[in-house]
Amino acid sequence: MKKILLFLSLSVIVINFQGCIKSAVSAPCTDKTPASELAVMQAYASTNGYSMSTHPSGMLYQVVNAGSGAIPLSTSKVYVKYTGRLVSSNAIFDQQNNAANTGFTVSQLIPAWQLGLELIAKGGTIRLIVPSSLAYGCRGVGVIPGNSVLFFEIELVDIQ
Asked: The whole model's pTM is what?
């Protein structure tokens, strides 16, 4: 009798555990639209004194310095200095002050960076307030929660 109860108890535990795994894996994830995050983006710009333009993609941007010369292509390798912040808390989630540590291929960057970098040339600086769908979407990554609006300040130091 004890063996049967043990077997039944273990079976219930295994079945419940499998249900948890299945629901975690199949949990729906829906990206927010840029329009649904516009008020949050505009409030962040206003709070920080940024005069932003609206990109057709829905992201907000401010060209601080247009730079001169070459504009990166999707196949270009870019060397940048940047700061990334969570708009919700203004906390820095990533920062690089040494461009030599970067060397990113533009086509492998998040969509917001791809769009923003084509607005400046070598030596330029741009600020981006990014709807989550142009960054990491509903899944998030690392310390960035899903559906997070992000802020970036990017200086394009070099292009190869």
From this structure: 0.83
